[in-house]
Design goal:
Layout (H helix, E strand, L loop, with lengths): L1 E7 L9 H14 L3 E5 L8 H12 L4 E5 L10 H6 L3 H6 L7 E3 L3 E5 L19 H13 L5 E5 L19 H10 L4 E4 L6 E7 L2 E7 L14 E8 L2 E10 L2 E11 L4
Parallel strand pairs: 1-2, 2-3, 5-6, 6-7, 7-9
Antiparallel strand pairs: 1-10, 4-5, 8-9, 10-11, 11-12
């Protein structure tokens, strides 16, 4: 049985290009996903009108959804709100989809919130894999059926990225990645870097994959272009198709085979 999962990130609503936003909606609908995962930065600066725009977009998409906040989804311009209730607006607009887990007949997906309102770091936008949240994600992973492919999604990368060393400095990220792999994670999905890529490593006696999604909609492309990922998951393997915005539509920009069979 093949399960199609659409992974998109860094929408930064409202869209600067309405034509592109409509094309993105059409492309996702035409792909007919069973699951849609959005790994954060749905808004530009966490304002109410931006959340309304993002919520309208999400409502138009098919499939089960799991949606996570990013560093742009906290009230960036209101320090008091960032400290007191950084995710209030996010959960006001995504009360049912801002969930921590989602299960299908062959997938078990866990959400990990790496966004923070404020940290002791000089750059709070880099996020943090807090021990409390990671422990909760680990326990949820362990409760899942081990015969299913187990995924974790978050906004920030957990491992340092050689191509973007500074922006991938998620606090306690590397420790969290190892702990989640030991708890059964097969695949980690994230955004934040505005780049589509995939990589694998051997951990806990298994091959564990990381897949990053570029910005789906915004003009902040950082040289990678806008796009989203389609994952067709079939048992212990998956085909990853990176969809790229070009010539007025989203088209396949390359495919990668992900093998999870090594244990």
């Amino acid at each position: 049985m093949v399960t199609r999962l659409v992974h998109l990130s860094d929408l930064h609503c409202p869209a600067a290009n309405a034509v592109q936003a409509a094309a993105l909606t059409d492309a996702i609908r035409m792909s007919r996903p069973a699951v849609v995962v959005i790994t954060g930065d749905l808004t530009r600066s966490g304002r109410s009108h931006e959340f309304r725009s993002a919520a309208a977009f999400v409502e138009s998409l098919p499939g089960q959804k799991i949606i996570l906040p990013g560093n742009h989804d906290v009230p960036m311009l209101n320090l008091f709100a960032r400290i007191r209730a950084p995710f209030r607006r996010f959960f006001d607009h995504f009360p049912l989809t801002g969930i921590t887990q989602l299960e299908t007949p062959d997938l078990f997906l866990v959400g990990l919130n790496t966004a923070v309102g404020l940290t002791t770091s000089l750059d709070w936008s880099l996020g943090k894999a807090s021990p409390r949240r990671v422990e909760a994600a680990m326990q949820t992973l362990k409760s899942g059926d081990p015969s299913k492919l187990r995924l974790v999604a978050a906004h920030h990368p957990l491992e340092r990225d050689r191509a973007d060393w500074q922006r991938s400095k998620t606090s306690r990220g590397p420790q969290a990645f190892v702990a989640l792999a030991q708890a059964g994670m097969d695949l980690f999905l994230h955004g934040h870097l505005h780049r589509s890529y995939s990589t694998a490593q051997s951990l806990a006696g298994r091959k564990v994959w990381t897949v990053g999604a570029t910005t789906a909609l915004s003009e902040r492309e950082r040289g990678s272009g806008s796009g989203f990922n389609i994952l067709d998951i079939d048992g212990r393997s998956a085909n990853l198709s990176a969809m790229t915005w070009t010539a007025g539509h989203y088209a396949p920009g390359g495919e990668t085979h992900l093998d999870f069979s090594q244990r």
